Structure to design on (441 residues):
């Protein structure tokens, strides 16, 4: 897999555009859009040099090789684990050896959850061992497990209509897949909604449009004042099977056993490196991905790829001997999978200097064929982005889409800083926009 990075260095302050202020260049001269457009066009040769180095030159496949070494060496990196802290220390050393500036670690506190042993066996109407994955932050069952009848529903609305039937049962959500952002609410809120109607546990259908008997994990959230119940993900196939059984009037009984445990918050770090700006060093363009992952894979796609192409962005700039006008700051977040915990603490620490943040970027939707850039900001800022994307005509990636928000950068976007994520070819499993290349100003 190739990781393509497209980085362009300009003199436009997108924050001022997003907040509705005038655009200024040097001194008090108010810059016209035509002047900005002409300046952007001047970076055509720089853009070609970056493209050539990343796609055809010595940097070809470099981010892939770097990523492969880390994930093969460290493996999965769940929040609070020794593997995550090992990965952070390795990345800290790698960024220093790469010759980047101001490489340092910023301490944060993060959740520590472990799944333990887990199993689910359907006892009636026939015996069937099911594949499951406990959801992040779920409590465990009692040591002997939970044996209970199943109530299958397709939506929260159906659960409410059938609330009297749910008490003392295991609720199974066989929610149809529409898109990831809508369907994932069953993973996040399923346990709470089931607990409100007296369920003993909840099982959600894997949040995917396609399955090869593959349950997916992810974070779920409890709610104050609502009993905490165990919750896990099952496969699309098993959810559909139980739905068919229920429609025939079969009594379904499951024995669920989960050894999940939540521990006190652990010490961790956000990992930071920079290329300091030549003209406006106090102004920051933030490039980011997260280092943590779930525990059932290497985390190469989520979000090793995003973290490493973000590092590659700075490497390409450095290798070409370029010095951006503004400081390019790489942040490798920790505990994103738990809800952007590391990113929130970074925001709390740095928000006093929010006026110095020109643009925030996140790469965390998968590394696939790029088709454009997702962007959130003012219409004037969007017009500038469209001009910048014209520099990518040599590789036919020029579109600017909506919705640049992401878990680790939403704090900044909500405060008025423009934000971007990358648009790529849709993944066949999730049918959601995946990101690959990134763009820097």
């Amino acid at each position: 897999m190739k990781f393509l990075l497209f980085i362009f260095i300009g003199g436009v302050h997108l924050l001022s555009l997003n907040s509705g202020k005038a655009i200024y260049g040097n001194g008090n001269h108010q810059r016209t859009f035509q002047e900005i457009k002409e300046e952007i066009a001047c970076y055509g040769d720089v853009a070609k040099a970056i493209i050539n180095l990343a796609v055809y030159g010595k940097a070809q496949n470099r981010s892939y090789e770097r990523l492969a070494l880390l994930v093969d060496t460290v493996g999965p990196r769940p929040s609070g684990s020794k593997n995550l802290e090992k990965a952070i220390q390795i990345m800290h050393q790698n960024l220093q050896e790469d010759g980047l500036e101001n490489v340092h670690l910023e301490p944060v506190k993060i959740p520590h959850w472990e799944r333990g042993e887990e199993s689910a066996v359907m006892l009636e109407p026939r015996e069937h061992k099911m594949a499951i994955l406990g959801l992040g932050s779920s409590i465990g069952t009692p040591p002997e497990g939970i044996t209970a009848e199943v109530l299958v529903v397709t939506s929260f609305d159906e659960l409410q209509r059938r609330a009297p039937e749910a008490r003392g049962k295991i609720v199974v959500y066989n929610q149809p897949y529409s898109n990831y952002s809508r369907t994932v609410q069953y993973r996040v809120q399923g346990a709470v909604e089931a607990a409100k109607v007296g369920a003993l546990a909840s099982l959600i259908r894997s949040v995917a449009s396609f399955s090869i008997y593959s349950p997916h994990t992810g974070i779920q959230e409890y709610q104050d004042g609502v009993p905490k119940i165990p919750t896990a993900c099952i496969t699309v196939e098993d959810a559909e099977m139980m739905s068919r059984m229920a429609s025939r009037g079969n009594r379904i009984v499951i024995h669920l056993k989960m050894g999940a445990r939540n521990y006190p918050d652990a010490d961790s770090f956000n990992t930071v490196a920079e290329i300091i700006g030549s003209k406006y060093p106090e102004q920051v363009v933030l490039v980011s991905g997260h280092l943590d992952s779930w525990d059932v894979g290497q985390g190469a796609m989520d979000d090793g790829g995003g973290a490493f192409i973000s590092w590659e962005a700075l490497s390409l700039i450095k290798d070409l001997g370029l010095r951006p006008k503004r400081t390019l700051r790489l942040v490798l977040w920790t505990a994103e999978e738990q809800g952007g915990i590391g990113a929130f603490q970074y925001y709390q620490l740095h928000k006093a200097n929010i006026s110095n943040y020109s643009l925030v970027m996140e790469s965390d939707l998968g590394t696939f064929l790029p088709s454009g850039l997702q962007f959130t900001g003012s219409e004037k800022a969007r017009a500038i982005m469209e001009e910048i994307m014209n520099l990518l005509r040599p590789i036919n990636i020029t579109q600017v889409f909506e919705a640049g928000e992401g878990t680790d950068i939403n704090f900044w976007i909500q405060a008025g800083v423009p934000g971007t994520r990358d648009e790529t070819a849709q993944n066949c499993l999730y049918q959601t926009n995946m990101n690959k290349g990134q763009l820097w100003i």
Summary: Residues 1-26, 426-441 have pLDDT under 50 and may be disordered. The chain has 14 helices and 16 strands. Residues 130 and 279 are 60 Å apart (CA to CA).
